[in-house]
Write a structure and sequence with these properties.
Helices cover 22% and strands 27% of the residues. The chain has 444 residues and is an alpha+beta fold. The chain has a seven-stranded mixed β-sheet, with helices on one face. The longest helix is centred in the N-terminal third of the chain and has 17 residues.
Length: 444
């Protein structure tokens, strides 16, 4: 080839590069996530690299030879190319395999991930519900915990807040923190196959100790909705992240303790509220209608009487209103769970209701002052924790077992509660007060 023809060929390639630039196909930037899953449907969340039409191939065979295609929404820049779709017409207690499609092309390779639908709602069954909180400032801090969960026999995961530590309501910053947490091997091994539900607390809502007076809180809600696939987000006339769902014969009530929260230190209010009037009315209505023998009440902050300002403590009047409502309507089988405190422990609140606070899954562990209501305190171990409630409503009365997992070590504590302990008929033996308090009491 002579010099002139070589120059012409080079110029032609350059022109082609300008006229028809190569364009890579959209791809999944993060692993898909299974959201709310009932006996008949599921939600599948994805994040793509760019705008794309989102669909899913789903079937009961590992090779998807019996699969059908379910079309979802277009992934657009306004939501950072994130969204979820609902797959309906599923069979109860059945394993399904799936593959995400972007612009009609497979975005995943075999082996395809799978999940199992829930048992029929309202029927007796066994539910193993994991719950934790406080993932830590960097994504890698919680990845071992999520990997540990992926090896544990659980049916679903409840994320009880501080699911990132952006400490702002800026959508761009929050998305960055979500991405950092989800772009880890531990999360990637868990989210494509396990139903995951979430509520928030202060650090993933806004700045530390933020409340309903925070300007721009609707931005935080929008970003939260982008990243989770819950069954609902508040009510049509009352925004928030609260919702209820049923698994077998267990009802889960997930509270929003930030969006409608009054300031902790407010003293000039006739009724200082943690939940807001509409969320409180929703809860009472749904709890009264519940026929489940076990009801799990989940909040970002502790229910116990001697908590911090981040808990129900500044809102004792509203908390006690809930407890009175439960007692006056003779509602039994109520279990309380919470996060936020960077340690795992348990209380018998007011000598009647069992509360388990769970975490941290990635944040730095914290030492705590022992509560007079505590019967379990694992703060001295300085580990990372998640808990599993094994709830069996096929038994009469139902069986309630708590399993506490220390990441990397397995089960650190296991306890079967009697039904009389669950209903508050029997008092649970509490932890002794700290040694210095015992000495002071002896001197007096």
């Amino acid at each position: 080839m002579n010099f002139i023809s070589a120059r012409l060929l080079k110029a032609a390639f350059a022109w082609l590069a300008i006229a028809a630039p190569l364009h890579a196909a959209p791809f999944l930037e993060l692993a898909p996530m299974i959201g709310h899953t009932s006996s008949t449907d599921t939600r599948i969340w994805v994040k793509a690299s760019e705008a794309a039409k989102f669909s899913v191939r789903i079937g009961t065979k590992p090779d998807l030879s019996d699969a059908r295609t379910v079309r979802g929404p277009k992934l657009e820049a306004a939501s950072a190319f994130m969204n979820h779709l609902v797959v309906s017409n599923l069979q109860a207690s059945t394993r399904y395999y799936y593959s995400v499609m972007l612009d009609g092309k497979p975005a995943m390779l075999r082996p395809y991930p799978s999940f199992t639908t829930a048992p029929r709602e309202g029927e007796p069954g066994r539910v193993r519900a994991a719950f934790t909180s406080c993932v830590g400032y960097y994504g890698y801090l919680a990845t071992a915990g999520f990997a540990d969960m992926a090896r544990t026999n659980i049916d679903l995961l409840l994320m009880l807040g501080d699911n990132h530590y952006a400490n702002t309501n800026d959508p761009g910053v929050q998305r960055k923190f979500y991405f950092d947490q989800r772009d880890t091997s531990g999360w990637r091994g868990l989210s494509p196959r396990l139903p995951i539900y979430a509520i928030w607390d202060d650090h993933d809502f806004g700045p530390n100790n933020s409340d309903g007076k925070m300007p721009g809180k609707e931005l935080s809600l929008r970003t939260f909705r982008e990243h989770w696939a819950n069954p609902a987000y508040g009510e049509p006339d009352n925004p928030g992240v609260y919702f209820k769902f049923t698994r077998a014969n267990v009802d889960f009530f997930m509270f929003d303790v930030r969006y409608h929260r009054d300031p902790n230190g407010a003293t000039n209010l006739a009724h200082k509220t943690h939940l807001g009037a509409k969320q409180l009315a929703w809860f009472k209505r749904e709890l009264l209608a519940s026929r489940a023998p076990i009801k799990v009440l989940a909040a970002g902050g502790e229910w116990q009487t001697f908590g911090t300002d981040d808990s129900w403590t500044p809102f004792a009047e509203e908390r006690d209103e809930i407890f009175r409502f439960i007692e006056e309507n003779k509602i039994s089988g109520v279990l309380l769970i919470s996060g936020d405190r960077h340690f795992t422990g348990a209380y018998q609140v007011r000598g009647k209701w069992i509360e388990v606070t769970s975490g941290p899954i990635g944040s730095g562990p914290a030492g705590v002052k022992k509560s007079p209501e505590a019967f379990l305190d694992l703060s001295a171990t300085k580990g990372h924790f998640y808990c599993v409630y094994d709830l069996d409503t096929t038994a009469t009365p139902p069986k309630v077992t708590l399993e506490v997992f220390r990441v990397g070590d397995g089960i650190a504590h296991r306890r079967e509660f009697t039904w009389d302990e669950v209903t508050g008929v029997t008092k649970i033996k509490l932890l002794p007060p700290p040694a210095n308090e015992q000495k002071a009491k002896a001197k007096n």
